[in-house]
């Protein structure tokens, strides 16, 4: 017996992880409600791919940290696409900001985009899913929910807030058959520049601090999300999956896996 197609809401479809999610889930014939700050222009290729595979696609551009927008988006998905089965919250706003000199406006911007929107989307999706006693909520978060960046305390604080939101939601919504899990992603191309810090050398030669010296990709994240949304993950709830290739385990630079050309004879 064929399972009904999943209906997936992605909160930032323009982000590399959002694009990878579309490409991964379209293989299963999923339908999508995509929140896109570019009104779909940055994901035109993914939208065309989904439609060519007969997936239904709706694109919206709303501020999910404001009022009833999250609820309206969930209702739109349910009305036009069918029962919402998966919420993927992947908002990832980063602004360099220090504890000593950071502005309130920058702090609020990051917290609203990353954390407040997570709460509102979880509340809206949870209500819809609870009525059916089924659903999946997946947060694409960061290793900086646990490890300071040294460059943006607001970013770390927002990801820490999402981490505990997920725990509380897993406990509460789990009673209604809804699974809530977090992917703590780290170390993709460009992170060294993004998290450049005057306080820590964490990201110096960062690609070599992964035990196997390989950076992750958006596709790696999408594959884990695909698993978490599947029936094979039916007993996974309240989990944090650290997806950093072992980066946070690093502690001695002279033990890094360097390119063979620079190895000592």
Automatic annotation (TrEMBL):
A single Gene Ontology MF term assigned here is: oxidoreductase activity
What Gene3D superfamilies does the annotation carry?
Answer: NAD(P)-binding Rossmann-like Domain
Keyword vocabulary terms for this entry = Oxidoreductase
Q: Name one Pfam family in it.
A: adh_short_C2
Q: State the source organism's domain of life.
A: Bacteria
**Belongs to which family?**
Belongs to the short-chain dehydrogenases/reductases (SDR) family.
Q: Please identify the protein, giving its name as recorded.
A: SDR family oxidoreductase
